[in-house]
């Protein structure tokens, strides 16, 4: 349900259509088919993201401190390389 109020989704759809699809076709049925494809791919990707998060949740809860330390060190290394 949140996908319907997510402004980023609308901007992504508009950008994808104007940047890639309308260069080749402006027929209404083509635009509708591409928007349906974009919506389907987005829904599948979101569902897979949720599923992967649920799958690794038990591992994360068991080893949250070492995982957080590794992630924090990685973030610090990124900041250091940017500021260098």
What do you see in this structure?
The chain has 84 residues and is mostly helical. Helices cover 83% and strands 0% of the residues. The mean pLDDT is 88.
Classification by helices and strands: mainly alpha
Residue share in helices? over 70%
Number of helices: 3
Order of helices and strands: HHH
Largest sheet: none
Please mark out the parts with pLDDT under 50 across 5 or more consecutive residues, or reply none: none
Could you tell me the strand content as a percent range? under 5%
Q: Keyphrases for this structure?
A:
single chain, elongated, 3 helices, 84 residues
Reconstruct the topology from this structure.
Layout: H1 7-21, H2 28-62, H3 64-83
Brief summary of the model shown:
With 84 residues, the protein is mainly α. Helix content is 83%, strand content 0%.
């Amino acid at each position: 349900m949140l996908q319907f109020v997510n402004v980023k989704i609308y901007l992504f759809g508009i950008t994808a259509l104007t940047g890639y699809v309308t260069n080749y076709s402006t027929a209404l049925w083509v635009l509708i088919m591409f928007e349906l494809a974009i919506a389907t791919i987005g829904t599948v990707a979101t569902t897979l993201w949720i599923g992967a998060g649920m799958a690794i949740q038990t591992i994360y809860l068991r080893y949250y401190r070492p995982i957080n330390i590794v992630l924090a060190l990685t973030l610090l290394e990124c900041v250091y390389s940017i500021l260098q």
